[in-house]
Amino acid sequence: MKTQPDSHPAAARRILEDAAVKPTRARLALLGLLLREHTPLLHEEIHARLKPSGINRVTLYRALQCFVDAGIVHRIEAGDRLWRFAVCHGIHRGHCHPHFTCRICGRVECLSQCIMPVVESGIPGYQIEEQELYLRGICASCAS
Ligand SMILES: [Zn+2]
Ligand SMILES: [Zn+2]
Fold this sequence. Notes:
With about 140 residues, this protein is an alpha+beta fold. It has helices at about 10-20, 25-35, 45-50, 55-70, 140-144, and strands spanning about 40, 75, 85, 100, 110, 135. The protein has one domain: Winged helix-like DNA-binding domain superfamily/Winged helix DNA-binding domain (Arc Repressor Mutant, subunit A, Orthogonal Bundle). The protein binds zinc ion (2 copies).
């Protein structure tokens, strides 16, 4: 696992500019890390990996919140009461894809390629603002 904080500097900078978020050093390092990772990360895991770049917890917390508000990152709570954070890829921002938890290794993944049907409430006056789908099973590496 690489630990240098800025191996995706151009991509991270472009995403921040598109979202009109000021590209501070901490935000670039955080977004670079999340872009490199293919699994959603816990706050603790992000903090540990960004430690070499000297980003403190408060700065990290604020940067994550800023990314969530800007729609760059989404939060996932897969039933263990722990928030994980992942970059929102492509046009399906937010929670418009299912999340998968492996019951053997406990890994949580974004199933970004799996498009969820949009659920209608069917009840007059009810507007659905968010929909989440959590799937559990066995991941490819645990199955092999
Ligand atoms: Zn697994
Ligand atoms: Zn996701």
